UniProtKB/TrEMBL annotation:
GO cellular component, one term: cytosol
Keyword Nucleus: no
PROSITE patterns: DAPB
Main location: cytoplasm
Keywords, alphabetical: Amino-acid biosynthesis, Cytoplasm, Diaminopimelate biosynthesis, Lysine biosynthesis, NAD, NADP, Oxidoreductase
Organism expressing this protein natively: Isoptericola dokdonensis DS-3
An example Gene Ontology biological process: diaminopimelate biosynthetic process
Gene: dapB
Protein name: 4-hydroxy-tetrahydrodipicolinate reductase
Cell location: Cytoplasm
Amino acid sequence: MSSIAVAVVGAAGRMGSQACAAVEAADGLELVARITSGDDVGARVRESGAQVAVDLTVPSVTEANVHAILDAGAHAVVGTTGWDDASRGRVTEHLDRLNAGRADGQGVLIAPNFGLSAVLAMTFAAKAARYFESAEVVELHHPDKIDAPSGTARHTAAAIAAARADAGLGPSPDATETGWEARGADVDGVRVHAVRLRGLVAHEEILFGNAGEQLTIRQDSFDRASFMPGVLLAVREVGSRPGLTVGLENVLDLS
């Protein structure tokens, strides 16, 4: 069985360098390009023959990178946050154009978090959300992170909000009249709080409350090595999923 040829975009970064090492050590994968800032992403992906390109860069360039990867004929796995409905919509439109009339179209998998514990926490939270009157999310990261709230927290809150809406629940009770800036970001009606503290890597607490009870789901990533099994899983799976997939939970058997 031939290996999957993989390019890593953002290869000089902390996540990128670990991803390169993980791909090199993995069975059935071959690292064919380390792409860094200043490189022409599309040209490097095309000339390397990469079948899958992993984007681990920064929010300001990740969408352009994905479009370049698609135009170069490769699938894209994306760990960079900063995506919204508009940017995801543009990628979907691009994929629709490329995949029209094809049985084996290109795929993009955007993973707000590659940590398996984080994906499970998000999944458990979405299942619990319908049973609680109140829900809030706290995300805690290192102070070098440039976006807030994190993509993981936004993805978690959106899933909680969708589950609450499906269950017919209204907004969480909140009598706040002043000082709304202290109540965190509003993500689809769920409050999300961001902490930036030296010594942290990536952590999330999902809090649910009813009268007389509380459920806390806590996930901790202490080292970026914890993200690598998810990266490798995404690389292996994206080629079998034409179109846009958001969330690693969609390639795990969590039924």
